[in-house]
Design brief:
- There is one protein chain.
- The protein is mainly α and about 190 residues long.
- It folds into 2 domains: about 5-60, no CATH class; about 85-185, no CATH class.
- About 70% of the residues lie in helices and about 0% in strands.
- The chain has 6 helices and no strands.
Length: about 190
């Protein structure tokens, strides 16, 4: 993905800055937001939000309404109700499973049969290889949901409250899928 398009949750201001040439310096919109917040703390966040509001107004865009935990001042003190520890746990286990399968496949591809057999002699690695297909399917489903979330965020046909409601529902499904992956990992003692 080109640098200027990385960070679908970044502010509109950061997207404009990245698209205006900062992407040539490998600064994605998400990185620009991070820099503003890092250097200027809450003032940088508020400035970026105000500039994004102006950019959205000029473009006629209507971003989704925010949960209270997503607003600049309150997000310093509150947890976002849509984030879920299961998502982070799932991606960690899923990434380990994919790396294990890739390592095994590379050994097999290079004709290192003895090393491959020794590699999968470890019961945890066998379990990771066995779980990798299910993990991949869950990751693919989660990627589809993320794409739907981007479409909802960018939709000009929905009012901000309807966007927020739809995004909350999609995030809930996203979190449930991650929890299914974590449950698989727990049943196989992979965490």
């Amino acid at each position: 993905m080109p640098t200027a398009y990385r960070g679908d949750k970044a502010t509109a201001f950061a997207k404009v800055l990245s698209g205006a040439g900062l992407d040539k310096l490998s600064l994605s919109p998400a990185q620009i937001d991070y820099l503003f917040q890092g250097y200027f703390a809450e003032l940088g966040t508020m400035t970026s939000e105000l500039a994004s509001y102006a950019v959205n107004s000029l473009n006629g865009a209507t971003p989704p309404a925010r949960n209270l935990a997503e607003t600049p001042f309150f997000k310093s003190f509150m947890a976002n109700p849509n984030t879920d520890k299961a998502v982070a746990d799932f991606f960690e286990v899923s990434q380990t499973a994919i790396e294990t399968v890739n390592a095994f496949n590379q050994m097999a591809k290079r004709g290192l049969g003895a090393e491959a057999q020794e590699y999968i002699a470890d019961p945890e690695k066998r379990m990771l290889i066995g779980a990798s297909s299910a993990m991949r399917q869950i990751r693919d489903s989660m990627a589809d949901i993320r794409k739907q979330m981007v479409l909802v965020r960018e939709s000009q046909n929905l009012d901000p409250e309807k966007k927020r409601e739809t995004l909350n529902k999609l995030q809930s499904v996203f979190n449930r899928l991650a929890q299914q992956g974590v449950s698989i990992a727990d049943r196989l003692n992979l965490r």
